[in-house]
Design a protein that fits this description.
By secondary structure, this protein is mainly alpha-helical. The chain contains 6 helices and 2 strands, in the order ααββαααα. Helix 3 packs antiparallel against helix 4.
């Protein structure tokens, strides 16, 4: 009898340890006062956080590609504070609480963070069907 998927034992893989967004992103460097604009952009590009405006105030956030699924689940469940705690720099969370953004400002913040990260979130388009008709037999 030949081995097939029903007769062979399944191999299990070891589970990966959970990692926080801060562990996934590269290390951040604090900006210096005497840094030029070009150098600041370079530092931001190599840092682990990007700077996004929230209610007119700059806050540091993990790039959208490093947002954990659990943080995105919090948004779907309506836990915006939990989401922001997951993706904001630890020092900027208090500023978020102080600013107390309305939903439009929160949505703009998320959109800006995704655009600056170069990774828009949302529904992906399905592949288009063939432009040629096939004949049934």
């Amino acid at each position: 009898m030949a081995a097939n998927s029903r007769t062979t034992a399944r191999k299990t893989t070891a589970t990966r340890p959970a990692r926080t967004p801060r562990e996934l992103a590269p290390e951040v460097r604090e900006p210096d006062d005497d840094v030029t604009a070009a150098e600041a952009q370079e530092l931001e590009a190599t840092g682990r956080h990007i700077t996004v405006d929230l209610c007119g105030e700059p806050v540091r956030v993990v790039p959208a590609g490093a947002w954990p699924v659990s943080a995105q689940r919090k948004v779907r469940e309506g836990d915006l504070d939990g989401f922001m705690a997951s993706v904001l720099h630890e020092d900027d969370y208090d500023l978020y609480v102080e600013l107390d953004p309305v939903l439009d400002e929160f949505n703009q913040f998320v959109t800006d963070a995704q655009e600056l990260s170069g990774e828009p979130q949302g529904k992906s388009r399905r592949p288009s069907g063939s432009s040629r008709r096939t004949r049934r037999r």
